[in-house]
Amino acid sequence: MNTRELTGRQKEVLRFIENFLLTRGFPPTLREIAEGIGLGIKNIASVQKHLKSLEKKGYIKRIPRKTRGIELTSLKLSNLNIIPIIGKVQAGLPIPAFEDVEGTIAVDSLFVRNADGTIALRVKGESMKNAGILPGDVVVVKLNEQINDNDIVVAFVDGEVTIKRIKRKEDTIDLVPENPEFDVITIKSNEERLYILGKVVAVFRRIG
Amino acid sequence: MNTRELTGRQKEVLRFIENFLLTRGFPPTLREIAEGIGLGIKNIASVQKHLKSLEKKGYIKRIPRKTRGIELTSLKLSNLNIIPIIGKVQAGLPIPAFEDVEGTIAVDSLFVRNADGTIALRVKGESMKNAGILPGDVVVVKLNEQINDNDIVVAFVDGEVTIKRIKRKEDTIDLVPENPEFDVITIKSNEERLYILGKVVAVFRRIG
DNA sequence: CTCCCTGGTATTCATTTGAACACCATTATA
DNA sequence: TATAATGGTGTTCAAATGAATACCAGGGAG
């Protein structure tokens, strides 16, 4: 048999573990698995064998002697980032304050590597429409990130929050919208009207 | 003290639990917490008190008498969906086949309610640019969903995969791009050139 | 036929674990 | 001043748990 193919019973065990973990928040014990797939409570040895098979075929990883020590290869929690969604950013000095935290959002590490210094905001306005950032979208913002030319940033201008593309000139900084209906905001370097909150690193949208 | 505010020690305990769960894949035992925050191994009673405080303030939920029975309010795994990323969709009858599964992606239930019959695809081409769907984006597709007029769909036309907005006319179906540089594809209802794979329900993009 | 893998049943055992007490110190609040 | 909340220490105990072992049966591969 192929090294990755599962027997019916093994599939059943794997599905049970996945489902248990997703609904309960932690992996099952051997006895919980036994019960879950309709085996007698005394019948842990069978479960042990199934788990050994699943591990050999690469679907799970077991941590020896640890209660509930089962990791799913398909669901690596270490690939997850929990990021707070901020409802309102309040102007303030020296740094703006985050208010109305709506909750948290789980983001795959495919989009965000590290949750440190990262927040999520809801997009208002159409100024970045042509960059594929629409009203209602959720943008993920890295706060303490190096800002490079042409980055899309979340900026405070005169106390207002806005998303724009940044372009540095000789003596000015341009905040460029990606929508011809909006104007470029030009700020002289010596003015104190601008505060760059962070860099937009991901965009999420739900449709329908 | 506010019902939600945490003391320094309580914060420390919560951070430890979060970090443990995310890196190890399952919550810690009381003794692991005790060790993790620098308490003696015998000192479980203190941890019990901290957990009780954290639960009272709504940050965690405990499942009595269960080893590692700690749920994080901020990280509800039940709010997570694990969706396969399909590298290539192969034309085939009666339904296309999914090949080159790149892996899985975790999606917050904020964007996808249910993982059943759901896949993720990478966008190629700019035909939906003005709908905020760009090349390289990941789109989430519901396979067995009711298709309504004006939905954005993944369609097979003459064996080619494409993302378009669907508009039903009297005797034809129009697949409308959201980019003036692309043409509308019109298909007569009696032709067998069209297969609707599913409906696009979410778009994800990484920037930079 | 023999060997290996799968799958189930039954039992034993050392550890681990959550829970419950008792006791103490500090600090903030009423 | 009294009271509650926080935070730490030490101990005991029943229950839960992973591991190991032995036994049995069927099927596929060589």
TrEMBL record, chains A, B:
<dbReference type="Pfam" id="PF00717">
    <property type="entry name" value="Peptidase_S24"/>
</dbReference>
<dbReference type="InterPro" id="IPR006197">
    <property type="entry name" value="Peptidase_S24_LexA"/>
</dbReference>
<dbReference type="GO" id="GO:0045892">
    <property type="term" value="P:negative regulation of DNA-templated transcription"/>
</dbReference>
<feature type="site" description="Cleavage; by autolysis">
    <location>
        <begin position="91"/>
        <end position="92"/>
    </location>
</feature>
<keyword id="KW-0742">SOS response</keyword>
<dbReference type="GO" id="GO:0003677">
    <property type="term" value="F:DNA binding"/>
</dbReference>
<dbReference type="InterPro" id="IPR036286">
    <property type="entry name" value="LexA/Signal_pep-like_sf"/>
</dbReference>
<keyword id="KW-0234">DNA repair</keyword>
<dbReference type="GO" id="GO:0006281">
    <property type="term" value="P:DNA repair"/>
</dbReference>
<feature type="domain" description="Peptidase S24/S26A/S26B/S26C">
    <location>
        <begin position="84"/>
        <end position="201"/>
    </location>
</feature>
<keyword id="KW-0678">Repressor</keyword>
<dbReference type="InterPro" id="IPR039418">
    <property type="entry name" value="LexA-like"/>
</dbReference>
<keyword id="KW-0068">Autocatalytic cleavage</keyword>
<dbReference type="InterPro" id="IPR015927">
    <property type="entry name" value="Peptidase_S24_S26A/B/C"/>
</dbReference>
<dbReference type="InterPro" id="IPR006199">
    <property type="entry name" value="LexA_DNA-bd_dom"/>
</dbReference>
<dbReference type="InterPro" id="IPR036390">
    <property type="entry name" value="WH_DNA-bd_sf"/>
</dbReference>
<dbReference type="GO" id="GO:0009432">
    <property type="term" value="P:SOS response"/>
</dbReference>
<protein>
    <recommendedName>
        <fullName>LexA repressor</fullName>
        <ecNumber>3.4.21.88</ecNumber>
    </recommendedName>
</protein>
<dbReference type="GO" id="GO:0006260">
    <property type="term" value="P:DNA replication"/>
</dbReference>
<dbReference type="GO" id="GO:0004252">
    <property type="term" value="F:serine-type endopeptidase activity"/>
</dbReference>
<dbReference type="InterPro" id="IPR036388">
    <property type="entry name" value="WH-like_DNA-bd_sf"/>
</dbReference>
<comment type="function">
    <text>Represses a number of genes involved in the response to DNA damage (SOS response), including recA and lexA. In the presence of single-stranded DNA, RecA interacts with LexA causing an autocatalytic cleavage which disrupts the DNA-binding part of LexA, leading to derepression of the SOS regulon and eventually DNA repair.</text>
</comment>
<keyword id="KW-0805">Transcription regulation</keyword>
<dbReference type="InterPro" id="IPR006200">
    <property type="entry name" value="LexA"/>
</dbReference>
<comment type="subunit">
    <text>Homodimer.</text>
</comment>
<keyword id="KW-0227">DNA damage</keyword>
<dbReference type="GO" id="GO:0006508">
    <property type="term" value="P:proteolysis"/>
</dbReference>
<keyword id="KW-0804">Transcription</keyword>
<feature type="active site" description="For autocatalytic cleavage activity">
    <location>
        <position position="127"/>
    </location>
</feature>
<dbReference type="Pfam" id="PF01726">
    <property type="entry name" value="LexA_DNA_bind"/>
</dbReference>
<comment type="similarity">
    <text>Belongs to the peptidase S24 family.</text>
</comment>
<dbReference type="InterPro" id="IPR050077">
    <property type="entry name" value="LexA_repressor"/>
</dbReference>
<keyword id="KW-0235">DNA replication</keyword>
<keyword id="KW-0238">DNA-binding</keyword>
<keyword id="KW-0378">Hydrolase</keyword>
<feature type="domain" description="LexA repressor DNA-binding">
    <location>
        <begin position="4"/>
        <end position="69"/>
    </location>
</feature>
<feature type="active site" description="For autocatalytic cleavage activity">
    <location>
        <position position="164"/>
    </location>
</feature>
